[in-house]
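User: Hi! I have a protein structure encoded as tokens and I'd like to know what sequence might fold into it. I'm fairly new to this, so please keep things simple.
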């Protein structure tokens, strides 16, 4: 809103996602701005700071991070670190009196999610999870179409999220170390399907079953490569998902409903997602320019959402509770795969 100082974020962790997607997105924000950087690599931090006009005094290391408490230019921190580090940094940020945006997966255990939620409550600060798809215009239009009943009652949802992981790249290395990632392709990619099944069906499953493929590749010694799961719902619907670190990139959601079938493909891409419904020989594509979907940048919209929620009191689209529910279901998937038995949720 006019007259209000733009909301200042400090980015914690200057890795691939922060540098390539989040930092450039501040340029299209309405209410948010880049105010600080937190990094273990001072040289990189100085370079990024000078490229984005961040003053040197607003650069922090992981050791002096708690000093952000004394920096009024920083309203929130955005945690873009390896998964297992999210919880501790979120708790430290709340103790320093800041709001928190935290990347998915929220944390690597339900206990850590709860710790983050409790710390937010104690500090009376907002916790938001970086579920960018909630801000994707195609996903939003598809959800409007589904909620308006145009497809009829949803019966089966299928989610597929795969990508080939390169461990030559530093971001591939922590992803296969359980102590940093908390799990393999499910934690990294399959989580989009877990979250997607929940927003498409607007319902939480009552039972989870899952199976994990064996991998002889030593890279997948600590975490899973291929895993596949099924959620059973009280409404009578089913959702399926599979994820893999060794299959070429796909992000596809299939929706079988009573009146129409729909496909989101790509479903969870950074740009150019596409929603198509099929009835007999008729195909409608929602990403068509004729539908007049604004070319909204999902990253900027996500960054603007936190100050918007704080200023307007509107409900948050990506709360800590949402993040925790996904981790609860992911843990049920791992449990079912390990015991080869369905798990009630
Ligand atoms: P990267 O490995 O590229 O970056 C992680 C950064 O974290 C590093 O560059 C480093 O920053 C910092 N870091 C601190 N401690 C460690 C450590 N022990 N090992 C490795 N890095 C460390 O990962 P990504 O950017 O791909 O992923 C980061 C987070 O963002 C993950 O939680 C991931 O799930 C999420 N993500 C979300 C996406 C989305 O679409 N929403 C897409 C991609 C990732 P520095 O050098 O500055 O200290």
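Assistant: Happy to help. Inverse folding works backwards from shape to sequence: for each of the 345 positions I chose a residue that suits the local structure. Here it is:
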């Amino acid at each position: 809103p006019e007259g209000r100082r733009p909301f200042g974020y400090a980015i914690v962790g200057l890795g691939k996602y922060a540098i390539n997607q989040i930092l450039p997105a501040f340029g299209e924000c309405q209410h948010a701005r880049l105010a600080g950087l937190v990094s273990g690599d001072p040289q990189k931090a100085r370079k990024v700071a000078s490229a984005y006009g961040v003053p040197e005094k607003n650069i922090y290391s992981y050791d002096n991070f708690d000093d952000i408490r004394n920096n009024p230019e920083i309203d929130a921190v955005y945690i873009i670190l390896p998964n297992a580090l999210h919880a501790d940094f979120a708790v430290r940020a709340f103790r320093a009196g800041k709001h928190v945006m935290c990347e998915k997966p929220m944390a690597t255990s339900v206990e850590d999610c709860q710790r983050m939620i409790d710390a937010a409550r104690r500090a009376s600060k907002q916790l938001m999870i970086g579920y960018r798809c909630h801000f994707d215009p195609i996903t939003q239009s598809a959800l409007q179409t589904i909620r308006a009943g145009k497809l009829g009652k949803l019966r089966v949802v299928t989610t597929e999220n795969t990508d080939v992981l390169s461990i030559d790249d530093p971001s591939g290395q922590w992803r296969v170390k359980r102590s940093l990632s908390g799990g393999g392709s499910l934690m990294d990619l399959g989580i989009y399907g877990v979250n997607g099944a929940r927003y498409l069906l607007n319902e939480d499953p009552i039972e989870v079953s899952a199976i994990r493929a064996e991998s002889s590749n030593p890279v997948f010694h600590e975490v899973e490569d291929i895993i596949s799961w099924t959620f059973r719902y009280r409404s009578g619907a089913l959702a399926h998902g599979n994820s893999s670190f060794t299959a070429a990139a796909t992000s596809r959601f299939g929706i079988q409903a009573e009146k129409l079938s729909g496909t989101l493909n790509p479903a969870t891409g950074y740009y150019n997602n596409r929603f198509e419904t099929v009835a007999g020989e008729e195909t409608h594509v929602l990403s068509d320019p004729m539908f007049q979907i604004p070319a909204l940048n999902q990253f900027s919209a996500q960054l603007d959402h936190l100050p918007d929620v704080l200023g307007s009191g509107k409900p948050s689209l990506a709360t800590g509770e949402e993040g925790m529910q996904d981790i609860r279901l992911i843990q049920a998937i791992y449990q079912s795969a390990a015991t080869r038995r369905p798990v009630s949720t």
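A useful reference point when you look it over: The first helix runs from residue 16 to 25. Feel free to ask if any position seems puzzling.
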